[in-house]
Design brief:
Layout (H helix, E strand, L loop, with lengths): L16 E3 L6 H4 L4 E3 L18 E5 L5 E7 L5 E7 L8 H18 L4 E6 L8 E6 L2 E6 L2 H4 L2 H11 L4 E6 L12 E6 L5 E6 L2 E6 L13 H7 L8 E5 L5 H7 L5 E6 L2 H13 L5 E4 L2 H10 L4 E6 L11 H16 L2 E11 L6 H15 L1 E9 L18 E9 L1
Parallel strand pairs: 1-3, 8-9, 13-14, 13-16, 14-15, 16-17
Antiparallel strand pairs: 2-5, 3-4, 4-5, 6-7, 7-8, 9-10, 11-12, 17-19, 18-19
Length: 408
């Protein structure tokens, strides 16, 4: 039964109301957490009159309580649901409770404290990402509403985890859509220049403030574990868009004979060398644009048995889809051109707007252009510390196809 606004506790009735148009409550009632500006009944509840980041009562056109949400009148996604329990609007206590639930899941997944701790909507905290690196927490806030709760988040992190430090790496382009500045700052504690990660028995370091995302890509952990079964003595591995070398070093520690990392960042490749040394292996590095590097390797006649293609998102908006599809097709075509005999292509995309079937189509088109025959052996997604919200398809974004490659 949907509660009525009359059931709201007296101390919560002062919260402003945001009412939806007739029929616009179906998606919210089904579990989605986003409200778009064109869904709001602005005649009865003027959206622009609400302050950015304010907590509101979401109501259907009939006045039924749908949940508590925070708002940003200046964004396309103008409100995000943060709670559906009429007795508990978002506050420090509720954030702490959700952190405890999130930690409970991650502790079932791994014994070591290295994982994505909070994955936005999937953990009931839209706009918030927290990654755990032992005793260091690195956070990113993508929305103005969650920015307004930053002090409460910091207090809840102290209460639940009591880490040595919390660092805000709020330098994502997503903040531009919310009219938020891109900043980095220490919330508390002493923050190192590099974070340390333990993954599948291996030790890595990565730059923090100057690194990508929060410093590490925990979403690929499970896929790197999948790679291990495909290693055999003598395997030559190419890690394209390698960042700090996790794919290549995982392969070398599990039987590969040699590995090369390609990345455009000198700092990332310096980290590759340090990580290789720390794990007792040797990795060759090439600093270059991925497309140019693959062309140069092909011209030199170099060949590899395993090629991992893990590029940044080529498609960040719907309007980028045609150009992005062409980029994925071209990159996979270049990768396949470096393989001979019986090999493995691991082709990844973190672009939500690229459907899995479209990545498969890009791989197949690349195979036809290079005279290769491809068999998809398995498909991977993001690691389980990035859970998918069943009502929010946007939380399922990562694709990874493990493909056997032979000559036609």
């Amino acid at each position: 039964m949907i509660p009525s606004s009359a059931q709201i506790l007296p101390e919560h009735r002062a919260l402003p109301v945001l009412r939806l148009k007739r029929g616009e409550d179906r998606r919210i009632a089904a579990g989605h957490m986003w409200v778009f500006s064109n869904e709001v009944d602005t005649a009865s509840t003027p959206l622009t009159a609400l302050p950015t980041g304010a907590l509101v009562q979401m109501q259907s056109h009939r006045g039924q309580f749908l949940g508590y949400a925070y708002v940003n009148p200046h964004a396309l996604i103008c409100a995000r649901i943060v709670g559906r329990d009429i007795a508990h609007p978002l506050d420090r206590a509720l954030i702490a409770q959700r952190l405890e639930v999130a930690v409970g899941l991650r502790q079932r997944l791994t014994r070591e404290p290295y994982y994505r701790l909070v994955f936005g909507e999937s953990d009931g905290l839209p706009g918030l990402v927290l990654d755990r690196y032992g005793d260091i927490i690195v956070g990113q806030i993508a929305t103005a509403g969650m920015e307004a709760f930053k002090a409460e988040i910091e207090a809840a992190v102290r209460e639940v985890l009591n880490p040595a430090a919390l660092f805000w790496k709020n330098d994502s382009g997503a903040r531009d859509l919310e009219h938020l500045p891109q900043t980095t700052e220490v919330a508390f504690g002493n923050v190192p220049e590099e974070i340390e990660v333990f993954e599948s028995g291996l030790r890595f370091t990565a730059p923090l403030a100057a690194g990508q995302k929060t410093g590490w890509f925990y979403d690929q952990t499970a896929n790197r574990q999948r790679l291990v079964r495909y290693m055999w003595p003598g395997t030559r591995v190419l890690d394209v868009c390698s960042y700090v070398g996790a794919w290549a070093i995982t392969a070398l520690k599990n039987g590969a004979a040699s590995a090369r990392c390609i990345d455009s960042s000198a700092a990332a490749l310096q980290a590759v060398s340090r990580n290789a040394e720390a794990n007792g292996v040797t990795v060759e590095t090439t600093r270059d644009d991925a497309f140019d590097a693959l062309k140069a390797l092909q011209e030199r006649g170099e060949r590899f048995d395993v090629v991992v293609v893990d590029p940044p998102a080529f498609i960040k908006r719907k309007k980028d889809v045609p150009q992005g599809q062409a980029a994925y097709r071209k990159l996979n075509q270049l990768a396949l051109g470096l393989m001979e005999g019986d090999g493995l292509l691991v082709s990844c995309s973190c672009s939500y707007h690229l459907a899995a079937d479209d990545l498969v189509a890009a791989i197949q088109s690349a195979a036809r252009h290079t005279g290769r025959f491809v068999q998809i052996l398995e498909a991977g997604g993001q690691s389980p510390d990035h859970p998918v919200h069943p009502a929010i398809p946007e939380t399922r974004y990562l694709k990874a196809f493990f493909c056997r490659v032979t000559r036609e």
